[in-house]
Amino acid sequence: MAVRLDVGSAGFTVRLSGLDAVGGGRGELVVPFDRVLGVRVMARRDALVSSPRLAAPALWWPRRFRTGCWGIGERRQFWAVHDGADLVVVYLSGRPFHRVVVDVDEPRLTRRRLDAALLASKMRSPRLPARPPRRARGVARDGIG
User: Fold this and answer.
1) What is the SS3 assignment for 117?
2) Domain limits at 33?
3) What DSSP line would sit under 70-121, residue for residue?
4) What is d(CA 27, CA 47) in angstroms, rounded to the nearest whole number?
5) Is 111 inside any structural domain?
6) Residue 25 CB: number of other CB atoms within 10 A?
7) What tens digit of pLDDT does each residue of 19-63 get?
8) 139: in domain
9) Per the domain annotation, does 131 fall within a domain?
Protein backbone atom coordinates (compact mmCIF):
# COMPACT_ATOMS: atom_id res chain seq x y z
CA MET A 1 0.00 0.00 0.00
CA ALA A 2 1.39 3.38 -1.00
CA VAL A 3 -0.54 5.31 1.70
CA ARG A 4 0.50 5.57 5.35
CA LEU A 5 -1.09 7.56 8.18
CA ASP A 6 1.25 8.52 11.04
CA VAL A 7 -0.20 9.90 14.28
CA GLY A 8 1.89 12.35 16.32
CA SER A 9 1.28 14.42 19.44
CA ALA A 10 0.33 17.61 17.54
CA GLY A 11 -1.41 16.13 14.52
CA PHE A 12 -1.31 13.43 11.88
CA THR A 13 0.48 13.00 8.58
CA VAL A 14 -0.73 11.17 5.49
CA ARG A 15 2.34 9.96 3.58
CA LEU A 16 1.97 9.11 -0.11
CA SER A 17 4.35 7.42 -2.51
CA GLY A 18 4.31 6.23 -6.09
CA LEU A 19 1.17 6.86 -8.11
CA ASP A 20 -0.59 8.23 -5.02
CA ALA A 21 1.95 11.04 -4.68
CA VAL A 22 1.49 11.91 -8.36
CA GLY A 23 -2.32 11.89 -8.11
CA GLY A 24 -2.36 13.75 -4.81
CA GLY A 25 0.10 16.35 -6.05
CA ARG A 26 2.15 15.97 -2.86
CA GLY A 27 4.21 13.45 -0.95
CA GLU A 28 2.54 14.17 2.38
CA LEU A 29 -0.35 16.01 3.98
CA VAL A 30 0.19 17.32 7.53
CA VAL A 31 -2.93 18.12 9.58
CA PRO A 32 -2.73 19.65 13.10
CA PHE A 33 -5.24 18.44 15.70
CA ASP A 34 -6.51 22.03 16.03
CA ARG A 35 -8.39 21.48 12.76
CA VAL A 36 -9.81 18.01 13.52
CA LEU A 37 -13.52 17.90 14.32
CA GLY A 38 -13.97 14.13 14.41
CA VAL A 39 -12.84 10.75 13.13
CA ARG A 40 -14.88 7.77 11.99
CA VAL A 41 -14.64 4.55 10.02
CA MET A 42 -16.96 4.52 7.03
CA ALA A 43 -17.83 1.93 4.40
CA ARG A 44 -16.28 2.75 1.04
CA ARG A 45 -19.62 3.07 -0.77
CA ASP A 46 -20.97 5.48 1.89
CA ALA A 47 -17.86 7.64 1.63
CA LEU A 48 -18.18 7.75 -2.16
CA VAL A 49 -21.84 8.75 -2.02
CA SER A 50 -21.03 11.75 0.18
CA SER A 51 -18.06 12.84 -1.95
CA PRO A 52 -17.97 15.51 -4.66
CA ARG A 53 -17.63 14.20 -8.21
CA LEU A 54 -15.26 16.90 -9.48
CA ALA A 55 -11.61 15.80 -9.50
CA ALA A 56 -9.39 18.85 -8.95
CA PRO A 57 -6.55 17.54 -9.41
CA ALA A 58 -6.75 13.78 -8.88
CA LEU A 59 -6.23 10.34 -10.38
CA TRP A 60 -8.73 7.52 -10.17
CA TRP A 61 -9.57 4.15 -11.63
CA PRO A 62 -13.14 2.98 -11.00
CA ARG A 63 -13.34 0.47 -8.13
CA ARG A 64 -9.51 0.41 -7.85
CA PHE A 65 -8.13 3.66 -6.44
CA ARG A 66 -8.95 7.32 -5.88
CA THR A 67 -6.18 9.74 -4.98
CA GLY A 68 -6.06 13.52 -4.85
CA CYS A 69 -8.40 16.46 -4.32
CA TRP A 70 -12.13 16.25 -4.98
CA GLY A 71 -14.55 19.17 -5.08
CA ILE A 72 -14.03 22.89 -4.66
CA GLY A 73 -14.58 25.43 -1.91
CA GLU A 74 -16.03 24.27 1.40
CA ARG A 75 -16.73 20.73 0.15
CA ARG A 76 -13.17 20.02 -0.99
CA GLN A 77 -11.85 16.66 0.17
CA PHE A 78 -8.52 14.84 0.07
CA TRP A 79 -8.66 11.15 -0.84
CA ALA A 80 -5.95 8.47 -0.69
CA VAL A 81 -7.92 5.26 -1.20
CA HIS A 82 -7.17 1.92 -2.85
CA ASP A 83 -9.46 -1.11 -2.71
CA GLY A 84 -10.28 -1.23 1.02
CA ALA A 85 -13.86 -1.84 2.16
CA ASP A 86 -13.61 0.37 5.26
CA LEU A 87 -12.00 3.82 5.21
CA VAL A 88 -10.81 6.26 7.89
CA VAL A 89 -12.63 9.57 7.47
CA VAL A 90 -11.33 12.65 9.31
CA TYR A 91 -13.60 15.74 9.39
CA LEU A 92 -11.81 19.09 9.47
CA SER A 93 -12.57 22.76 10.03
CA GLY A 94 -11.26 25.46 7.72
CA ARG A 95 -9.50 25.15 4.40
CA PRO A 96 -8.11 23.69 2.19
CA PHE A 97 -9.95 20.44 3.01
CA HIS A 98 -13.25 19.68 4.71
CA ARG A 99 -12.53 15.97 4.94
CA VAL A 100 -9.59 13.57 4.57
CA VAL A 101 -10.42 10.02 3.47
CA VAL A 102 -7.68 7.39 3.78
CA ASP A 103 -7.46 3.64 3.16
CA VAL A 104 -5.19 2.03 5.77
CA ASP A 105 -4.50 -1.58 6.78
CA GLU A 106 -6.37 -1.46 10.11
CA PRO A 107 -8.98 1.34 9.95
CA ARG A 108 -10.58 0.71 13.36
CA LEU A 109 -7.22 0.64 15.16
CA THR A 110 -6.15 3.80 13.31
CA ARG A 111 -9.38 5.55 14.35
CA ARG A 112 -8.79 4.61 17.99
CA ARG A 113 -5.21 5.91 17.80
CA LEU A 114 -6.41 9.18 16.24
CA ASP A 115 -9.17 9.57 18.87
CA ALA A 116 -6.72 8.98 21.73
CA ALA A 117 -4.18 11.45 20.34
CA LEU A 118 -6.93 14.02 19.69
CA LEU A 119 -8.21 13.70 23.26
CA ALA A 120 -4.67 14.06 24.64
CA SER A 121 -4.14 17.21 22.56
CA LYS A 122 -7.41 18.68 23.89
CA MET A 123 -6.29 18.02 27.46
CA ARG A 124 -3.02 19.89 26.85
CA SER A 125 -4.63 22.98 25.32
CA PRO A 126 -8.33 23.85 25.16
CA ARG A 127 -9.88 24.53 21.77
CA LEU A 128 -11.07 27.93 20.65
CA PRO A 129 -14.44 28.01 18.88
CA ALA A 130 -14.27 27.82 15.09
CA ARG A 131 -16.50 30.90 14.80
CA PRO A 132 -16.92 33.77 17.22
CA PRO A 133 -20.29 33.78 18.99
CA ARG A 134 -23.03 35.81 17.34
CA ARG A 135 -24.74 38.63 19.09
CA ALA A 136 -28.45 38.25 19.66
CA ARG A 137 -30.63 40.14 17.23
CA GLY A 138 -32.13 43.38 18.44
CA VAL A 139 -29.59 43.85 21.23
CA ALA A 140 -27.69 47.12 21.08
CA ARG A 141 -23.96 47.28 21.71
CA ASP A 142 -24.49 48.50 25.26
CA GLY A 143 -26.71 45.48 26.03
CA ILE A 144 -29.97 47.43 26.17
CA GLY A 145 -32.61 46.28 23.65
Assistant:
1) helix
2) 3-124
3) ESSGGG-EEEEE-S-SEEEEEEESSSS-SEEEE--S-HHHHHHHHHHHHHHH
4) 23
5) yes
6) 15
7) 777 777 778 889 999 889 999 999 999 988 888 887 878 877 877
8) no
9) no
